Amino acid sequence: MKKCNRLPVLIIMCIAFFTATAQITVVASGLSGPYGLAFDQTTNRLYVSQSADALNYKVSYIILNTTEPQIVDLLSTNIIKPTRLKISNDSYLYVVESDPNMGKISRANISGTDTPQITPYITGGLVTPMGLDLKNGNLYIGDFGNYAIKKLTPQGSSFQTTLLRNDLASDLIIDGNIYYYSNPYYGVFSNSITNPSPVSTQITTGISNPSSLLLNGDWLFISDSQNGSVYRVNLYTGSSSAQLLITGLNQPQSMVVYNNELYIAESGANRIVKFDLNSLNTKKFESNLIVTISPNPANDKLNIQTESDIKDISVYDILGKKVSINLISVNQIDLTRLLNGLYFIKITAENNAVFLTKFIKN
């Protein structure tokens, strides 16, 4: 296997082919090109967009905590090619309508009703929108047809648009001040919202057609619709390789996690399947160096506790640039010269074992 640097997000990653042994389970079948998924924890409903039949575009839901889940159609009028779905904290279901001529973002209030009304929310300036994420009241959109990644901030009845980057994004996801996006031709990348770099960081290679992304804990899940596969990458600890989880799917698209099971919209097979994440042998991805850092977040000092002899300590900012630090001792770092924000710390032991994690400087 090709040797990779252990700093995820900061450098290019390679693919490690550890195929999971657990089998997928069919959750629902008989759908029509399922594409987007969104899970509502309040009602245990899994929402799914169906976009294959131009005469019957719709959004449905499945109640997951029942022995025989039933598909219930929820929205079926005034929708054109629904793809991505997102649920906001105030119980609005956002629907990305990826029509190249009438692309828009619509939404419906799904709180306390089984007959919500969908209304257009963003109707101008979008051409085949694909990716969507919600954060702090802002909408982050992969405006695929306009070759743009945008941040839209509501201002009364209008929106302030901030161009984050000119690039293709079939999906995107926000993690703090970092956004990850999938370019279906070149791979998965990351960049900063607040301190953007002119060149995005490529975090995976070898994935033919990355279509959808899911962030769950420290893991970034990636579906490859062309090869029918699902991968995951540990962004902060363990190996810097992408793990091949599932093969043999038919155009996998959006994913969600519920009860530590990965739900996948298998668009080409017109069904939703799930994969038990508990079946994975995570020991392959754990570092053999045990380290505790505290406090986290930290103000002026960061303490390091380990039973191993430390050979090197390095700190990197969110764009992968190594920053200068002052070692008070081998077990303590002076942080007073660092700006507030998210950092990565890499600790190497005398036996060359490596520990990597993140911390916040306040």
Give the topology.
Blueprint: E1 15-16, E2 25-29, E3 34-40, E4 45-50, E5 58-63, E6 71-75, E7 82-87, E8 92-97, E9 104-109, E10 118-122, E11 129-135, E12 138-143, E13 148-155, E14 158-165, E15 171-175, E16 178-183, E17 187-192, E18 201-202, E19 210-216, E20 219-224, E21 229-234, E22 242-246, E23 252-258, E24 261-266, E25 271-276, E26 292-294, E27 301-305, E28 310-316, E29 322-323, E30 326-329, E31 332-334, E32 341-349, E33 354-361
Parallel strand pairs: 1-22
Antiparallel strand pairs: 2-25, 3-4, 4-5, 5-6, 7-8, 8-9, 9-10, 11-12, 12-13, 13-14, 15-16, 16-17, 17-18, 19-20, 20-21, 21-22, 23-24, 24-25, 26-27, 27-31, 28-29, 28-32, 30-31, 32-33
Contiguous uncertain segments of 5+ residues: 1-22, 282-287
Number of beta-strand segments = 33
Number of helices: 0
Quote the distance from N terminus to C terminus. Answer: 39 Å
CATH domain class of the largest domain: Mainly Beta
Proper CATH architecture of the largest domain? 6 Propeller
- What count of structural domains? 2
CATH topology label of the largest domain: Neuraminidase
Write down the overall mean pLDDT: 85
Strand order in space, largest sheet:
1-22-21-20-19
Estimated structural class:
mainly beta
The CATH superfamily of the largest domain is known as TolB, C-terminal domain
Radius of gyration: 21 Å
Tertiary shape: globular
Description:
This is T9SS type A sorting domain-containing protein. Keywords: Signal. One of its GO terms (biological process) is canonical Wnt signaling pathway. Residues 1-22 form the signal peptide. One of its GO terms (cellular component) is plasma membrane. By secondary structure, the chain is an all-beta fold. The chain has two domains: 24-280, TolB, C-terminal domain (Neuraminidase, 6 Propeller); 291-361, Immunoglobulins (Immunoglobulin-like). 0% of the residues lie in helices and 51% in strands. It has strands at 15-16, 25-29, 34-40, 45-50, 58-63, 71-75, 82-87, 92-97, 104-109, 118-122, 129-135, 138-143, 148-155, 158-165, 171-175, 178-183, 187-192, 201-202, 210-216, 219-224, 229-234, 242-246, 252-258, 261-266, 271-276, 292-294, 301-305, 310-316, 322-323, 326-329, 332-334, 341-349, 354-361. The strands form eight sheets. It has a five-stranded mixed sheet, with no helix packed on it. Strands 2-25-24-23 form a four-stranded antiparallel sheet, with no helix packed on it. A four-stranded antiparallel sheet has the order 3-4-5-6, with no helix packed on it. Strand 20 (219-224) and strand 21 (229-234) form a beta hairpin. The model is unreliable at 1-22 and 282-287 (pLDDT under 50).
